[in-house]
Amino acid sequence: MSERLPIIDATAGSGDGAGLAVLPDLKAMTRDELTAFLKEGFGESRFRGDQIFRWLHMKRARSVEAMTDLSKKLRQALTERTRVGGLELEDVRTAQDGTRKLLLRTAGGDRIESVIIPMDHSFTQCVSSQVGCKIGCRFCLTARMPLRRNLSASEIVDQVLWAQEVMGEGERVGNLVYMGMGEPLDNYEQVVRSLKILMDEFGANFSSRRITVSTSGVVPKLARLGADVPVNLAVSLNASDDETRTRLIPINKVWNIEALIGALHAFPLPPRRRITIEYVLLKGVNDTRADAERLVKLLRGLRCKVNLIPFNPWPGAPFERPEERDVDAFGKIVLDHGFTVTVRYSKGEDIGAACGQLDGNQVAA
Ligand code: SF4
Fold first, then answer.
1. Residue 213: C-alpha distances to residues 210, 242, 320 (Å)
2. pTM listed for this prediction
3. Which one of 41, 99, 290, 295 has the minimum C-beta count within 10 Å?
């Protein structure tokens, strides 16, 4: 089969252990890839590619058999030679504030989490890109799970499709943030493919303005991301000096603050958009006036807004949440230098669904 098609690529690293990885995954293909695949392997037209893509990503079909307006012959051929990848929904847990955490299982039995957060007029979904993570941010519970594997594009997309299944009448996810388990840019190919699928008008049809990819600072992939898909970018900065940042996010040893800020200046930001600078505030570590002063100096001239996240403690965490007055004082300094500042007190803490609390193990209890 042609190398253009994601036959192997789409399942690469999936390690689903079910012997399924050899079959091409229809759900992991962009619409163009699916169309090319159907033409090459089955002699089908563009129309058929659109039709099957719609079944998978708009009507949320979980098998070829469910695609009732395809001929029996084509359904049989596709069933024999392809698969519809994705995840199993194992459990849904709802927090007091309405945040819902989905526990999902891969075909190989790995568990991942995705969180649906109620906002003022809509919902934001936090999407995972890997099982575990190798970045090792010290304030993050996911970092305690070693990286087991990358999620395939279909497993990333399926988190969004499942969210639609579990939401009530009239509810819809309006914004997606790739901020769940894993470092998205460490699973670049599958993440970009999932973005293209989710933005397709024949599927979930998310506007690029409504999707944010958050990175811990994988500098070499930043320019590539900006060129490949015009999504919003968030960067987990969390410190204003290299010593503190290296302590919190070890990849700072490889790409330090200067390299990261340089890459942000070069990022091909669409007009009227700003990069989100994420800053987890840790009591006594990075929350002083001096930290705030250094931060505004670093960000000078960058089209950005600052999102302050008071730390969400988890059992055994080596950090504490700062006092509210220190959060306010930090925010005021940044604000007084002309930046837009938001303070995000995470939701869903009582079910372990807040920022940095995802570990794939807390729902089923
Ligand atoms: S914060 Fe993100 S990049 Fe850092 S360890 Fe957690 S999941 Fe990985």
1. 10, 23, 27
2. 0.91
3. 290
